[in-house]
Amino acid sequence: MTSEAEVYEAEKKECQEKVTSIDWESDELRSALLEWMCPECGSGLIDVQAATADRWTAVFQCRSCGKQWEFEDAAEKAVEDYFPERISAPLRMAENRVR
Ligand SMILES: [Zn+2]
């Protein structure tokens, strides 16, 4: 007998292993992506689609609602969620608004 929580944990682990298998060149970025929840549905099951170790071509997909993000999008959102006070994330694109 398998509970829903166990299924979720197993899938979460699978997703996290894929995230971990890519070289993010940053521990903070990896941590942020591992903990990232889907902004659309709140699921923590963010899968990596592209079978590649190159972070620039990685594509993320939420297993729950199917939404996809490219690396830059995902990284920016994940880092914002994970480090809400640290706007100056290394990946952040040039900002128009200066605080
Ligand atoms: Zn989702």
As an assembly, this protein is: single chain
Q: Round the mean pLDDT to the nearest integer and report it.
A: 85
Widest sheet, order of strands: 1-2-3
Helix/strand-derived class?
alpha+beta
The small molecules bound here are:
zinc ion
How far is the N terminus from the C terminus? 53 Å
Q: Tell me the Rg in angstroms.
A: 14 Å
Shape: globular
Indicate the percent of residues in helices: 25-40%
Largest sheet: 3 strands, antiparallel
Task: Name the poorly predicted regions.
Answer: 94-99
What's the SSE pattern? HHEEEH
Our count of helices gives 3
Give the beta-strand count. 3
Share in β-strands:
5-15%
Task: Give the topology.
Elements: H1 4-20, H2 27-35, E1 46-48, E2 59-62, E3 68-70, H3 71-82
Antiparallel strand pairs: 1-2, 2-3
The structure holds zinc ion (ZN).
Question: Mind explaining what this structure looks like?
Answer:
- Helix 2 (27-35) crosses helix 3.
- By secondary structure, the protein is an alpha+beta fold.
- The protein has helices spanning 4-20, 27-35, 71-82, and strands spanning 46-48, 59-62, 68-70.
- The chain is 38% helix and 10% strand.
- Strands 1-2-3 form a three-stranded antiparallel β-sheet.
- Strand 2 (59-62) and strand 3 (68-70) form a beta hairpin.
- The termini are far apart.
- The protein has a domain at 4-72.
- Residues 94-99 have low confidence and may be disordered.
- It is built from three helices and three strands.
- The longest helix has 17 residues, at 4-20.
- Bound molecules: zinc ion (ZN).
- Zinc ion is lined by residues 38, 40-41, 43, 62, 64-65, 67.
